[in-house]
Amino acid sequence: MEFAFTDDQQMIAETARAFFTENATSERTRRAMAGDGIDLKLWTAFCQELALSGIAIPERAGGAGLGLVELAIVAEAAGAQVAALPMLGSLAQAAQAIAAGGSEAQHEAFLPALISGEKIAGYFHDAALHAEGDRLTGGSHFVPHGMIADLFVVTDMRRMWIVRADAPGVTVTRQTTMDQTRPLARVDLAGAPGDPMPDASAALAAAHRAAFVAAAAEALGGAQACLDHTVAYARERVQFGRPIGSFQAYKHRLADMMIEIEQARSAVYWAACAVDEQAEEAAMAVHAAKSFAADTFFRCAGDMIQLHGGIGFTWEHDAHLYFKRARALQTMLGSGNWHREQIATMILGEAA
User: Fold this and answer.
1) How would you class 43 by CB atoms within 10 Å of its CB: exposed for 0-12, middle for 13-18, buried for 19 or more?
2) How confident is the model over 161-188, as pLDDT tens digits?
3) Closest CA to 1 of 320, 347, 267, 291
4) Which of 75, 182, 244, 257 could form a disulfide with 217 if both were Cys (CB 3.0 to 4.6 A apart)?
5) Is 173 helix (H, G, I), strand (E, B) or coil?
6) How many other β-carbons are positioned within 10 Å of the β-carbon of residue 238?
7) What are the chain's domains?
8) What gap in Å lies between CA 231 and CA 235, rounded to an integer?
9) What is the pLDDT of residues 250-283, one digit of tens each?
10) pTM of this structure
């Protein structure tokens, strides 16, 4: 598959990079970490001024009608700045699920508010969820931005419901989270009313595809930022009368990071393009992208800390923000081993 951005996609990439570089600063991210883990001013500007929040939502559902390639472009730019936004749960999972499998009434009730940023959605699945009519009992310990969510999209992997956060029977508890830029919450449902989606299969498939691609693209952006920050440091830090980037061992580490990142970039945009073109390998591609990009980000974040020396271990430096995000992404939406098992099963069948 040959792939290159179109002029419109290149414009989206440049616009998104400029927006997040200017607005998702370290100072603002750290203020968000000290609060609810979201930069609300940034989220509002992203949704309403930049107007890229509905980029991968079909036009019939109120979005821009573009695809996962464009979503990946935006997620990569946000990941490069470790932006404290609920993009993954609210847009890539919940909004995609509602757009693909929700009723017209659900589209009208929820999608405009999610796309505009006026409401935030959480997303989780509970394989042991108990449904008695429209009453749901179950929950999850790990719901990104669950504390500030206005609604939840809930699935047992066969059915899917929309549950309002203020509905009776819904309890949300703050959790201690390693990645403070994407805080997790425990959500408990005790006979909470749920609004079922008519096409849960389509909703689940859309949410998974978009989430895997968005998480992979976010990891790609973070990995590239780790390399960029480390290269800049290597040029300015002087040891033994010369920049440390001139030492052979240091250059080898940077080269290894670059090679891993370029492979991850190919995997991410292969997956996004395969989904948009409904290619046969799309299902395999999204698993490959998530596992490879997340692992690449984690390795690059670790290298960033080591290659910065003592300052890389301090709270004042941003290296730990990337490392924590990378570690969280590795475990979210299935571990790398789980994704590789899915690929093995697709290739080998029962022999896997």
Assistant:
1) buried
2) 999 999 999 999 998 888 899 999 999 9
3) 267
4) 75
5) strand
6) 11
7) 202-351 (1.20.140.10)
8) 6
9) 778 889 889 999 999 999 999 999 999 999 999 9
10) 0.92
